[in-house]
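In the previous chapter we treated chains in isolation. Here, by contrast, the input contains two separate entities that must be folded as one system, with a combined length of 550 residues.
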Amino acid sequence: MKEKIIIAENLSKQFGHFKAVDNISFDVSKGEIFGFLGANGAGKTTAMRILCGLSYPSSGKARVAGFDVYHQQEQIKKNIGYMSQKFSLYEDLTVLENIRFFGGIYGLGKKELKNKSDELLQTLHLSGETSKLVRSLPLGWKQKLAFSVAIIHKPVIVFLDEPTGGVDPITRRQFWDMIYQASENGITVFVTTHYMDEASYCSRLSIMVDGQIRAIGSPAELMEQHHAENMDQVFFDLARTATRSAD
Amino acid sequence: MISLVNISKTFNRGALKALSGISLEAKSGELFGLIGPDGAGKTTLFRILTTLMLPDSGDALINGLDIKKDVTTIRSKLGYMPGRFSLYQDLTVDENLKFFATLFGTTVRENYAQIRDIYIQLEPFKNRRAGKLSGGMKQKLALCCALIHRPDILLLDEPTTGVDAISRKEFWEMLARLKADGITIMVSTPYMDEANLCDTIALIDQGRILSIDTPGNIVRNYPRPLYAFKAKNLYRLQQDLRLHENIHSCFAFGEYLHVSFRDESAVSLPVMAKWLEENGHQEIILKNQTPVIEDCFIDLLKH
């Protein structure tokens, strides 16, 4: 049996009378690309914040990278990577400054950081752009750089929150190549997206509706269960049963 | 009608070319889509059309009015929904509506028919502050505020970005109803699948138009036969195909890879199937594929 990187059991988060996350249970194995899907307001962000050690659950259990979400938030933060469409890099720092900053925060040594940044810049074909402000980079490059920075410390698991929103179709696919590579290197990937074609690229995925996980499995399993030809249909089938409004 | 001739705009003293020689025409009553990723220049184009910014060069007419000279008249004929939520967060739903109606010298009652279908869904929250609305409701309120003065032309900058697939579908259904009322609509989106819901689309990238036509014609003009490939391990299939000398393009599209060949005469699906089998692939499916807009966009980007 493969090592479990995320184990969530009956996890809930309540704000007043509102159950943002309602009793979810699932696990994610090492090296998996796990898609975390759901309509706006389904509870994805709340659940992700708990798993990243940024917020406490109201009840239930969860372990991330072997650490408990109640008592070991700091260890969780050290062992994960995180990137979102909205915030990932400092726009007014240069490419190299961003790499050094995040590498430093994650505790990489001087020599290690130097090797890592050289390697990273070469892979991304950014060696000629090291002193450019991140602000001036095209979005696609920014997102690829942000992903590389998010895994610079070789985290056990990386959380990607809508990493490809607004990115052009070629870069979007190159980004997924990078996700596959990270997964082959043993990094577990936890990703959210509104692009349903990307749902098919996940090894397994869950779909949240009204705070609950209503479906979980490989894309092929879910399509079979819902007699659907693509993930789009599966998603519509489930998400339209939602009774609470978005966000 | 919206007509642009050779519109260019640069920022940072010319260092950043936001728009380079954009020409297009959106006819009256048409639903016109600007399809392109972030950085394509969509927002800059909207800011020029809404008279919020002047182009460096080129001409733009809105219903025959010049965006450089007829600023106030144009503004009264336009409804604009910016990409970022721009209503007053600390005013209620009804207060926002009333405010925008008053700005344009009209009343909510006078133009209620125009917004009724959308407003009905907002009504339960009419006394809620705009900042406390959900994303979907904010979007509906912004659309109501953009429509309250009965504009001839509606400009929508990425109304569906970051919105889930279900809400996106609902939004496009609202647009179809507005179009039926005779409003000219120009809408931008980074989602290629939304292109098919437009009458005419301009595919744009980095300030340039790659192609303008109906979605149907753009797809018909895809320059070569296209195939869909599938196997048990899609990632390895893609890696192997990229090493094949006769592959022109190979991109993932959900469950399948869309594949085209350099030389059609030198290859056939049975030959490819055999080659893949020899390379250890299982559960191989190869078939013809009708291109979608995203295939066309990728092909145009590669040139």
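The two ends of chain A are 37 Å apart (CA to CA). Chain A has a mean pLDDT of 92. Compare these points with the single-chain example from earlier in the chapter.
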